[in-house]
Structure formats: C-alpha cells, structure tokens
Amino acid sequence: MIRLGEKQTLSIVKKVEFGVYLAEPGREEVRILLPGKQVPPDADLGDELEVFLYKDSKDRIISTVREPKLKMGEVKVLTVVSVQKIGAFLDWGLEKDLFLPYKEQVGKVKEGDEVLVRLYIDKSRRLCASMREVHELLRLDSPYQAGDMVKGRVYELSDNFGAFVAVDGCFSALIPHHEDHSFLQVGSQVEARVTAVKPDGKLDLTLRQKAYKQMDQDAVKVLELLDEYGGELPFNDKASPETIMQETKMSKNAFKRAVGHLYKERKIELTDHSIRKR
To answer: What's the pLDDT at 120?
Structure first.
C-alpha cells in the first residue's frame, strides 16, 4: 500500500529517460516516478530502493531518496521560508516546500520563524503541516528528573493550563498557569527547571530559580512595585492568588517569601489590607 509522508521500499519496474518508475511487488499497476537525478548510477530493473513519498507541484505522487526533515508521525521544528495569501511554506529539505495552512497555525507566523509542526493529509490528499495537536506525538519517556535544567520551545499557550513546551523538541512539558508566562509567545525558546515528572511522564517546568535564589530577585520586584504605587500596595500577602499573580506576576508562595524577607529586613510594614514601604 502506497503511504504518503513515509519511507517505503519499492522496486524498479521501468526505466525511462527522465528517471525510473517504482512499484510495490505484485502491484506494478501503481507506478511512482523517481526523477533521473536521484536514481543511483548502477540501478537496474528489479532493484529495491528506499524512498520517501510525497506530491510534486502538479499534485502527482512522486518519490525521493532524499531524507525529509519531517515524516508522518513525527514532530519537528521547521523554518518558515515564505508567507502567502493561502498560508505559509516551510523548508523540510525537499524541492517542494511544505504548506502550512492558516487554519493550522497557532498564532501568526512570519518568514524566518521556527515552528513546531506535524504532518497530516488534507481533504485533497496532499501532505500539509499543522501546528495543532502536536502534543499527541510528543514523547513521555524523557530522561529528566526534578531539578534538572532543560531547553524547549513553546508550542501552545492556554489561560487555563499555562505554556505547553516541547523539551528538546520531542518531550511533553508544561509551565503551569500559576507561573508567569505572559511574556512568552508560541515559538519562544526557554530554559527551565523541571519541578516534577508526572505519573504519565509529562514534565512540569518553572522558569524561576530555586526558592532561596529567587527570593532576592522577587524582593526587588516588590520594592519596585511599591514605588510604582507611591509607597503602598493596596493588598498584602493574604490576597487571593489571582490578585497577586495579576499585580506581581508571582505565585502567592513566592510573593509571601519575598514579603517575609523584606519584613525581616525592616524595609516594609504590613497592615490588615496593605503593604507599606518604610
């Protein structure tokens, strides 16, 4: 069975001036061209070749011995080479660029962007790229443990869940919503620390340092915020996590640690409803 987007081993069944035709054993009526410039010099009738199958600019199934940057069932980072009225086109290592329709984009992309995508076959039986549902193909067997530093790329943002990240481009991870991720965009590259490995293998990440290192930075942020408010915040560390996150971009625990640190250093005063700078 001919499978678009995959590598298959086919046999040479006919030689022509512009290349050779390949077919599956016993199914020679379905012939697929391998262009002449890609045919091995010593190739002969009956020889088997491993090829990748896709469609050319005239929508005909064609084969190549080149290795594409993306195959069916994979997720990879590809570069946007152009943006047209109908969508974007990506470099995937073959002569014909890979089409990324607007409806399959997560946010606008522009030329030069690097995007995490998967392959799918559209209604016209053509191979296309999608930035959606890539999580289904991300791996859950990462070698990382809590405390490890990792690198990844943001591929989706959610108000309810946080920032979804592909660690090393292939492992499933999340920066939870209670972490400040307002400055991130789809495509952002991040360096983060693993805070937990879930039972299903997914990673929880944080962009913050360990608490004892982060506390000094957070304390400085609180002092700066006090200056913006004229020396008194209209809430204290007993405020709701949502209020604290909205105003300070910190979790409630991080804010409480910073406030406690400043209080011990006698840099602030606490009231029932506010925080004042001394």
So the answer is: 96
Alpha carbons within 13 angstroms on the beta-carbon side of residue 149 total: 6
Spatial CB neighbours of 194, under 8 Å, sequence gap ≥ 6: 144, 145, 146, 147, 148, 149, 150, 173, 203, 204, 205
**pTM given for the model:** 0.71
Quickly tell me which residue has 């296309």 as its tokens: 128
Identify the residue with better confidence: 246 or 130: 130
Sign of CA dihedral 23, 24, 26, 29: negative
pLDDT digit string, tens, across residues 207-226: 876 545 556 677 788 888 88
Q: Distance (Å, rounded) from C-alpha 236 to C-alpha 64?
A: 65
* 114-121, strands of its sheet edge to edge: 98-101, 87-91, 75-84, 114-121, 127-130
Strand 171-176, strand 127-130: pairing: unpaired
Say if residues 268 and 276 touch (Cβ distance below 8 Å): yes
Closest to 251 in 3D by CA, of 199, 191, 200, 195? 195
Largest CA distance in the chain: 88
- Give the residue from 202, 166, 161 showing the smallest Cα distance to 178: 161
The CA-CA-CA angle for residues 111, 112, 118, to 5°, reads: 90
Confidence of residue 267 (pLDDT cuts 50, 70, 90): confident
Cα separations (Å) of 40 from 19, 24, 30? 10, 19, 21
